[in-house]
Amino acid sequence: MNRKLAGHIRDGGHAAESAREAARLWTQVVESMETALCVVGADGNIVAHNRAWRELHQLLGGSPGYVHDGTRYLDALERASALGHHIESLNSSFETAVADLLSGRVRTLTLELDAREEEPSRSLDVRSSPLRGSAGLLLLEHRLLEADAAASREHDHAELFRLLANSMPSVMYRVEIVDGARRFLYISPAVEELFEVTEQAVYADADVLWNQVVELDRSTSFHALRTASTSGPRELDFRVRTPSGVEKWVHSIARPHRDERGRLSWIGVLSDITARRRAEQRLLESESTYRTLFETVAQGVVYQDREGRITAANPSAQRILGLTLDQMQGRTSIDPRWRSIREDGSDLPGEEHPAMIALRTGSAVRDVVMGVCRPDGSRVWILVNAIPLEREGRVEQVYASFEDITERVELSRELRRQATTDFVTGIANRRSFMERLHQELERVRRHTQVSSVVASLDLDHFKLVNDTFGHSAGDAVLQHFAGEVAREIRASDFFARTGGEEFSLLLPETTPEQALALADRLRRALAERPAFHAGTKLPVSVSIGLAKIESADASTDELLARADLALYDAKHAGRDCARYRLRGTS
User: Residues with Cβ < 8 Å from 216, sequence gap 6 or more?
Assistant: First the structure.
């Protein structure tokens, strides 16, 4: 026991009483601490430990009563069945790693814990520091997430308490309160670093620490002191301002103790938590900023868990999708109610939703255009980005952001429709027909057994209709003719206006004989159902030229030239008829 400590204990300087007081402090302070502490000698054997260490050892699978002073520290670890022997950041063996810790070559050791599948992974952190004034002794501090290691048994290690108190960065103390007056029976040397006052100053005036508490926190702390129960621990966080003007956050934890004469004292620890509180403040500010962005950003944002279920959605997402948060929570991307489609109108399976791909592959998916249905039946087009969020190397959820691009998509589709559609009749134009004809020619070249026919159609005497009745009457004839053809052809056929009164018709999977029969039906339909404009009957007939698509055709131009020759044959034959041209005929 050092003289500085012995000179300030209650009975005034007697060595035996000093030793007893230090022993009691070991029991009341160290044994009651929640931190699992173990002191190891140069030979690797445990010299002292507190109850928190014993409880931790049993929590990890050690046998009750196995750990005692003199137990080999490595053996104690190996007896803990929950300890895995994989050591993070170290390539050496388990035994070598522990030896490195005990020898001082490393100061921190992290041991992974074996865990059942339903439990989260945990680790045991061991931090070492040499005990001041005692060569060869190490103080080992063990930290285990959610480990509960509070205890209050006696332990007879007076000298080790002195070494521990001198080594701890936190301030250990014992204060007696009599008739409202405070008197420190013990304060550890760390008080000078935390509060910038000496031990002697605290012993002389207990209020030297109390006066450093900032005014705003002092009333709260005083109320907590007055109302504190004497049957359990008390914890407080408060700010102090040191003599040099530095403001710090201090965490106090203390437990009440009554001696054999019934006098009440508090045994506790004061720790500097300034860095933690500042980190918490930064986190709160970051969370506040994130929450503000999440709530106010114009983009829709949803979070989906590893099963694809929506867990959160911001107001913009709710507005864009027409759903409340309650309606969205629990929905997945494969829910059929979305009726998702691609930009080309084809179905988009739920498994191919960007969020599901990101969850499955662990890679970001960006700039996917898709259409989804709102509850009112309307369709909204969104541009989606999906970012997987990992935890310990495993995708736990996905962050999907999207913007409403309905107006842009509909405008694009309208421009595309205008570029590929005839304005007067509403059917495809020449550009669309040539693209489709090229595709069909390529298909016939790949599958020579396929029989397809292309037809050129020309309305007879159409110029006379325009000259006699006007262009509006001519438009009425064109529209009437397009409607009659649409009634007769199949969904797989492709009909287009390719000139003023000229039309083209692609007939996949059709023989020349079937095409001639269709041409006759078209002529009869026009004869039976003439066009009318302003109450005037406008009889019209059509001449049709047919050509079979051959794999030997060099190009669509060669194919159309043959169909045009057949059309000329029909014109020369008196119009209102159909003719067919074989390849190679002139």
Answer: 239
Structural domain contains residue 474: yes
**Helix and strand counts by DSSP (H, E) for the chain:** 20, 23
Same domain, 436 and 562: yes
- Return the closest-CA partner of residue 387 out of 401, 408, 404: 401
Q: b/e for 392-418, b at 16 or more Cβ within 10 A?
A: eeebebbbbbbbbbeeebeeeeeeeee
Contact at 8 Å (CB) between 184 and 206?
yes
Range of the domain at 245: 181-277
Helices (H), 456-511: 462-469, 471-488
Give the dihedral of Cα atoms 218, 219, 221, 223; nearest 10 deg. 160
Q: Is the pTM of this model over 0.85?
A: no
Q: Indicate the residue among 360, 376, 405 that finishes a domain.
A: 405
Same domain, 546 and 440: yes
Same domain for 387 and 348, yes or no, is yes
Q: In this model, does residue 370 exceed pLDDT 80?
A: yes
pLDDT tens-digit series, residues 528-579: 999 998 888 888 899 999 999 998 888 999 999 999 999 999 999 999 999 9
Domain stops at, among 248, 277, 306: 277
Which SS3 state, helix, strand or coil, does residue 406 take? Answer: helix
Kindly state the tokens that stand for 445: 């070249």
Cβ within 8 Å of residue 229, ≥6 positions away: 256
Domain co-membership, 310 together with 341: yes
Whole-number Å distance between alpha carbons of 38 and 31: 11
Which of 29-43, 264-278, 286-300 is predicted with the least confidence, judged by mean pLDDT?
286-300
Residue 167: CB partners within 8 Å, gap ≥ 6?
A: 129, 130, 131, 132, 139
Q: What is the CATH number of the domain that holds 342?
A: 3.30.450.20
Q: What is the mean pLDDT of residues 120-126?
A: 75
Q: Is residue 304 part of a domain?
A: yes
Q: Is residue 236 part of a domain?
A: yes
> In this structure, are 438 and 511 located in the same domain?
yes
CA 185/CA 5 separation, integer angstroms: 10
Radius of gyration of the chain (CA): 45
* 316 burial type by CB count under 10 A (0-12 exposed, 13-18 middle, 19+ buried): buried
CA angle, 230 as apex, 228 and 235 as ends, to 5°? 50
Residue 452 lies in a domain: yes
Q: Say yes or no to pLDDT of 67 above 50.
A: yes
pLDDT of residue 586: 60
Indicate the pairing of strand 310-313 with strand 365-373: unpaired
Better-predicted residue by pLDDT, 230 or 318: 318
Q: What are the residues whose beta carbons fall under 8 Å from the beta carbon of 506, sequence distance 6 or more?
A: 433, 436, 437, 440, 452, 454, 455, 493, 494, 495
